[in-house]
User: Fold these one by one.
Assistant:
Number 1:
Amino acid sequence: MSQRISRRWTMTRFKIVVEYDGTGYHGWQLQKDLPTVQGEIERALERILRRATRVHGAGRTDAGVHAVGQTAHFDAEWKHPPEALQAGCNSLLPAEITLLLIEAVPDSFHARHSAVLKTYVYRIFNSKVRSSLNRLYAWHLPHHLDAPAMSEAAHHLLGSHDFAAFGAPTDGTPSTVREMTAATWVQCSDPGLLEFSITGSGFLRYMVRSLVGTLVQVGMGRITPSDFLDILKSCQRSRSGPTAPANGLCLQSVEYDHV
């Protein structure tokens, strides 16, 4: 009688880059009885791998926020090419979520802790008439905005600052100090579209949306760029402007030193 020999494949750590339309989701992170991006990816992986697989994201995105470059990692026993796992996941995922890239990485890689820079982009549709095509991906503002004044104010964000006036600490990182390496407003080729791009070592909860909401106050002439700097220095959340809607925000990219 021949003896059956079981072969156990070793675990491999995989890095994925995810694009998603966050309109119908309650953010990235798992929430009980609510649809989330992480939950959908884990559900697809479980069907393929036949075991529960935890996916670790580079950071949370709030309900309604989008991404074209969210990064995550997971560990799996997989003997086929990574592209086969990518294709399998994409065939099971909702149309709003796509794995753009999957690759094997060293076990030392961590999507959140290994990240060195993140870039977010916020889009505003500045026109008297609304746009049906942009409604899910840009904040419609019919009031004229002074883009140069907003750019002048955004310049104050460069460098290392305490951003307590614009957000709350994230889990596991009680400090509200972050370093920004870029913060710019750009007039897009599409008429009426403005984009705010900001790159930094990390971000507080609601920070980018709070920054945009306050910068819009500058653009509307309600406060000056100097006032904006005073708000930043104050570290008082109550002094910042209203939080911009989630639908205009997109996680653009996450950068790593060695992957």
Note: The CA atoms of residues 54 and 177 lie 29 Å apart.
Number 2:
Amino acid sequence: MKNFVIKLAKQAGLEINQRFNHDRIVKVKNKSQIVTAADLISDKIIVSAIKKKYPTHGILSEESGTINLDSDYLWAVDPVDGTTNYFIGSPLFAVSISLFYKNQPILGVAYAPAMNELYVAEAGKGAYLNNKKIHVSKSNVLADSFLTFCHGSTKSDIKRAVKIYNKIKLNSLDSRQLGSAALELGFVAAGRTECIMIPGAHVYDVAAGVLLVRQAGGKVTDFLGKEWNLKSKDMVASNGRIHNQLLKFLKNI
């Protein structure tokens, strides 16, 4: 199954990378969300392959919606995570595919074709970047940590993100909004950054990254400290060492 997902992510990634820097917008969901031809092409490649190989499995895709959610198996698919980055020529975008069994993540793959980076995690088997095992960072002080954040599309999510950013800046913490939750979670897993905070996290954006962080030794919860699950409305993922400091930081947001 792992090889099937890796092959699928690479196939979709190759297709969208060929269109990189000259793709077009085919739909505008709202003022902050666009859909390109690459989103639809990648989605078709991934969803059709899953339906053919595992016809009884459920699928949750950003572009295709939901299919057969009564199954014990659920695929979460973001065909291009970081579409705006992709459209403006930033390499920070990825194909994200993950698999849950009875609501628990068991496999996650995030492939960033423009950077030739392949993140893979299996439950109980660790996390890997380009076939090399990765681990979260050892930083244990929030003030010395590098933070990232993003947010969902609702006005409430955006207001909470603004509060987070305001608090980050007023406390002189270093942070970035990179525009691809899948890669930001991958960066935490690889020890490049210490955390990502997301009010309004969508399952298809973060599912692969959740397993990556956990298998790399990190921690993923909601803002109240409860273990992240498919019904969680927000997410904070970290190296684990600064997690309690982050929860305190996020209190009342």
Note: The chain has a mean pLDDT of 94.
Number 3:
Amino acid sequence: MVGGITDGHQLVEAALELRPDVVVLDISMPGLNGLKAGSQVLQQLPNTRLVFLTMHDDPALAAEAFRIGGSGYVLKTAAPGELLQAIRAALGGGAYVSPGLAGSEGESHHRRVADVAPDDALSPREREVLRLLAQGQTMKEAAAALGITTRTVAFHKYRIMRTLSLRSSAELLHYAIKRRIG
């Protein structure tokens, strides 16, 4: 732990000062709720990852957390190792949602989030890749813009298509246009 805070305003100030790779925050915070505080952090520090640790097991709140750029959503009732899993996923450019969110039917967390709001099932890096591809950039150009390899862009593209149940690059482009991504 690098720093501890007591409200949303302090979280934003501390994040801007400390510039952490990952911020663990709650939805319910005094002063400024976690969604607004997290959004403000990402406006100033877009490479910072947000992992929400919360008591709220509402899929709509989880979807909103991912919509603002969150990388993880862990329930406080989850197994202790889940927070570490979420942090590792966030640092790796992925996403994590507690399997206990909205029931435990054994379905994948990506599928549950995708059912709530498909765009929110994408990690921030996947959304960046989707945005660049939607702008007409090649995978090589997107890789250069993001400072990653073409193979990594291809991996993200594959995961985006799988998450959104798209079968071709044309469907991916159509999806991006329909959602005004880019």
Note: The chain has two domains: 8-107, 124-178.
